[in-house]
Specification:
heterodimer; A: mainly beta; seven-stranded mixed β-sheet; 11 strands; about 55% strand; B: about 110 residues; mainly beta; six-stranded mixed β-sheet
Chain lengths: ~110, ~110
Amino acid sequence: KAGVTQTPRYLIKTRGQQVTLSCSPISGHRSVSWYQQTPGQGLQFLFEYFSETQRNKGNFPGRFSGRQFSNSRSEMNVSTLELGDSALYLCASSLGTGNGYTFGSGTRLTVV
Amino acid sequence: QQQVKQSPQSLIVQKGGISIINCAYENTAFDYFPWYQQFPGKGPALLIAIRPDVSEKKEGRFTISFNKSAKQFSLHIMDSQPGDSATYFCAASKGGSNYQLIWGAGTKLIIKP
């Protein structure tokens, strides 16, 4: 079966712009989680969506938002980009029962 | 109380040796402890996981040892190979309606040929 698909793989944006990242989960998975990964900070949890509802949220500013559609696909939006937002953004899908998270390969965002 | 502390931050092991990575937690409500393996340019992949009703779980060369009383769990990689060189993350979660994984900081493992 197809894995978790994240698009685009690479993105370069200018400070102040906004960006939207997309994640298509494994078929049948209803939970999608987003993470920010930087060399110095490890995996930082952004938020989790389950059946179109945000179920958990990490400690990120309101510039980071997300949503999930009825087909479980999810998007993450970052507004007013800052240089510090440069990171690998990972999406993970699961059935939503607490185990079996499958990650995508991520979107590498560079803010210049 | 939600933290998972992982050590060491980096580890160099000779080929054929045993790699050991440790994690400690505080929240006794955690009931699921996975280990993930991440190669450069890829997302983390589930390697092996354990629940607190067993003290050890083995899958091939990978073993999780779990000490409930000490609130610690560790990953052992036997006969370590250069292909095992990756970053390893431990994590923990609890049941109920909130299944959020709490992550360790990661260990960069290098296996020297």
